[in-house]
């Protein structure tokens, strides 16, 4: 379970059970699949603003209370990494987890999946390979900033020649492979939009 969502998840489960509703029954009232409710209650997802308002109505509680719980749950940042090499992705995720133990860190091989995730989760930091199969990390950077202009982007590549292109985007950092904890810590100090978390 993600540490960041525990507060909201535990309270949602308690409120649902107090009203004698199953996850399926609440999902039916919310017009969502019961698996969506399950993800909210296991901490893997937070509902968006529209869903919070529906939850408040279905559970008979103050929407502001649910919004406050969601805000408390978002104290730890969402961090994503996109690289088409499974080996490099796994190694780099381990480094990010070492440096940012309180962050919710998710890796992606396909840019499309990263974009879908960013549309439903507020991504505060994205570490992007520049060459992602047939796709471009530079284009992905632009798309992520269309979704959320305050997403910090750090490019990670094996080729220093890409640095000029990278700096012409909205990115705030550039790292060479292989990723090291020291380099990540240095970049975190230089982010345009500082992350509020421990362990950095």
What percent strand? 15-25%
Poorly predicted runs: none
Rounded to an integer in angstroms, the radius of gyration calculated over CA atoms is: 18 Å
For the record, the CATH architecture of the largest domain stands as: 3-Layer(aba) Sandwich
Helices and strands: which structural class?
alpha/beta
CATH class of the largest domain: Alpha Beta
Element order: H for helix, E for strand: HHHHHEHEHEEEHEHEH
Q: Write out the strand line-up for the largest beta sheet, numbering strands in chain order.
A: 2-1-3-6-7
Say what oligomer this is: single chain
In the CATH hierarchy, the third-tier topology of the largest domain is known as Rossmann fold
Number of beta strands: 7
Describe this structure in words.
This protein is α/β, with parallel strands linked by helices and 200 residues long. It folds into two domains: 71 residues, 434 Repressor (Amino-terminal Domain) (Orthogonal Bundle), CATH 1.10.260.40; 111 residues, Response regulator (Rossmann fold), CATH 3.40.50.2300. It is 50% helix and 16% strand. The chain contains ten helices and seven strands. The strands form two sheets. Strands 2-1-3-6-7 form a five-stranded parallel beta sheet, with helices on both faces. Strands 4-5 form a two-stranded antiparallel sheet. Helix 2 crosses helix 3 and helix 7 packs parallel to helix 8. The mean pLDDT is 85.
